[in-house]
Amino acid sequence: MRDKWIIEVTIGLIFVFGGALLTLLIVGVLGMSLHAGTQSEPQQDMVQRVERTGDVKYLCVEAKTNGHIDAMSCQLIDPMSGGIK
Fold this sequence. Notes:
By secondary structure, the chain is of the alpha+beta class. The chain has 1 helix and 3 strands. The protein has one helix at about 5-40; strands spanning about 45-55, 55-65, 70-75. A 3-stranded antiparallel beta sheet has the order 1-2-3, with no helix packed on it. Strand 2 (about 55-65) and strand 3 (about 70-75) form a beta hairpin. The longest helix is centred in the first third of the chain and has 32 residues, at about 5-40. The protein is rod-shaped and about 100 Å long.
């Protein structure tokens, strides 16, 4: 013969399922926060240098991400004023 369900068994099952759900929730939140903390963004570096071709000087600026040149711009340096044209 089957045992009858009593209130103590029902409350116990609710607490077991609730505890399991709470544990899964805590582990999921901790796992996602640790995963987000280990994700690193690529670092972008800006490099300025003066290039010379004979008497002509250029100011060159490069934007690099992980060693790859994303953008480069060179401008002529005026020999009289020292400024950029």
